[in-house]
Amino acid sequence: MYRALTREIEVTVEPYYLEEQSDPEDSRYVWGYRIMIVNHSSKAVRLMTRYWNITDANGQVDEVNGPGVIGKQPVLQPGESYEYSSGCPLDTPSGVMFGHYSMETTDGEVFEVAIPAFSLDTPGLSRVLN
């Protein structure tokens, strides 16, 4: 699990390799990830947008921006959590993802919440350290 805390909003990520959707012979590697967002603050917040930076093992970067997550813009009251799952395909057997959410409080304040960097590693992959 990977974790980040920004302004009392906690984001945890649990990535997992989807072997049944991957085809290494065709350079297709697919991961899923579960995200949990917990509002530890005293204000309600709405998740407005998301930004992802996805970097494969060759250094190829793909940036993804958009409204909400999985078609929703959830509101988290103080003490509430929201969980969702999504996925990411790569052309290489490993990579890294990180990003942020844009949140808005009920009084109109907008701020960014970090999504921690997490690695996407094919099980059994031998690593070379430089």
TrEMBL record:
<dbReference type="Pfam" id="PF04379">
    <property type="entry name" value="DUF525"/>
</dbReference>
<protein>
    <recommendedName>
        <fullName>Protein ApaG</fullName>
    </recommendedName>
</protein>
<dbReference type="InterPro" id="IPR007474">
    <property type="entry name" value="ApaG_domain"/>
</dbReference>
<dbReference type="GO" id="GO:0070987">
    <property type="term" value="P:error-free translesion synthesis"/>
</dbReference>
<dbReference type="InterPro" id="IPR036767">
    <property type="entry name" value="ApaG_sf"/>
</dbReference>
<dbReference type="InterPro" id="IPR023065">
    <property type="entry name" value="Uncharacterised_ApaG"/>
</dbReference>
<feature type="domain" description="ApaG">
    <location>
        <begin position="3"/>
        <end position="127"/>
    </location>
</feature>
